[in-house]
Amino acid sequence: MVNGSVRVEEGRITAVDSGAGAGQAAIHDLEGDYLMPGFVEIHTDNFERHLMPRPKVQWAETPALLAHDAEVAAAGMALYFQHRPKRPVVALVYSHSHVDHFGGVRGVIDEADVKAGRVQVIAPAGFMDEAVSENMLAGNAMSRRALFQFGPLLPKGVRGQVDAGLGKTTSTGTVTLIAPTVVITQTVERHVLDGVECVFELTPGAEAPAELVIHHPGLRVLNMTEIASQNFHNLLPLRGAQARDALAWSRYLDGALQRYGPHSDVLIAQHHWPVWGGAAIDGFLRRQRDLYCYVHDQTLRLMNHGLLASEIDERDGERLRAWRDAPETVQMPGEGGESLQQVLDRAWPAFARACAGLGADDTLLVVAHDAVNRVLLCRILGIPLSKLWGFRQAPTTINLLEGASVDALEVVRLNDCSHHTALFGEAKHRAL
Question: Which pairs with CB-CB distance under 8 Å and at least 24 residues apart come from 335-340?
């Protein structure tokens, strides 16, 4: 350590001397501070936070997250404007709280435009809390685990990094964030953005703790964000993100199918290719809905028999897959195990006997388990038992049937859960 002076000429250090400097055009007194040689670090340890956290290193996490620009998003916008007219961005929507869906925001818009009111930033309720808690509080651990889950540092090639399921891999660029100016708080909200009608529907607790889907009625476009993709999403993320609620997920898919499916010509999402045409959209959403519902229901059923997930597959994996794909072919194991046809052959005569003698103003209450309800409804609806998973039967659901006779019944209400409350509903039932 030297008490002295530093001479700078034309931007270069030309001399370091002990004692006071003399004959200099400008003198800057450091007032007791230290002058140290080295490089100027323009980053704020964000990359290190993700990959190589150092013990005992303290730094301002939030400013670091807010201070970075997003290279990938900026490159994407530049590519878009090469082929399309360059118009100003007037609104940006955060679909959910995962970093790959907001980290590129500063490559698309400028915060000055947001503060001036020229750009709206829209996000679902709880977005900021979930985005910060997931990526800051648990960021170190999750980022390290993501390296193993997605392999972004592996060399590209057949023996390295090929794909990560939802895309090529996670971004290795810098992460950015701009706070939203409009927060969607109602379950369904309608907004008009630059003349485009947008219906936002909240879907929390499924793929992300804060998420929404978007329908554009005028364009007949349904944006399922990451609620519906061209694969089976992970329910227990290996990187340590919050576990997903498969039952709630299936209900959101069913809601979108009923409310927006008939009014959409194209379905888009944020990771995969579109689905074109009303019939294809209907089938796609049905398969996605049934997939998550099936995983939930069968996991609980076998879990209640004391089996772990791995044991379920090891014990009877072939039968488990058949129960999902071709339930009409499955004979349940053990003494007294039945097929669906055998259940129907047993249940329908009992149902017919119970209906016999009913008057025009009489009501019959039938209480049965899920499988019995389903096979009876298949017969009434005239659909094969192979379509057993084509409709929902939630715990304590109500189905209303009307007709002059047991052979002339029509389904007035199917899977009515309107009586469910916060005290007793599907989620509470599952927890108990």
Answer: 340/371, 340/375, 340/385, 340/388
Alpha carbon distances (Å) from 124 to 62, 189, 202, 258: 20, 11, 7, 22
Scan for tokens 């400013």, then name that residue: 63
Tell me which fold the domain 340-431 belongs to: Rossmann fold (3.40.50)
Over residues 389-408, the pLDDT tens digits come to 988 888 788 999 999 899 99
The CATH label, of 3.40.1360.10, 3.60.15.30, 3.40.630.30, 3.40.50.12780, for the domain at 60-292 is 3.60.15.30
274-325: per-residue pLDDT in tens? 999 999 999 999 999 999 998 888 888 877 888 776 787 787 778 878 888 8
Q: What pLDDT does 199 receive? A: 97
Strands 120-124 and 182-184: parallel
Tokens of 279: 């019939």
Confirm whether 60-292 and 340-431 share one CATH topology: no
Residues 65 and 157 sit within 8 Å (Cβ to Cβ): no
Q: In which residue ranges of the chain is pLDDT below 50?
A: 39-55, 57-69, 428-432
Q: How far apart are CA 64 and CA 139, in angstroms?
A: 13
| Domain map (residue ranges) of the chain | 60-292, 340-431
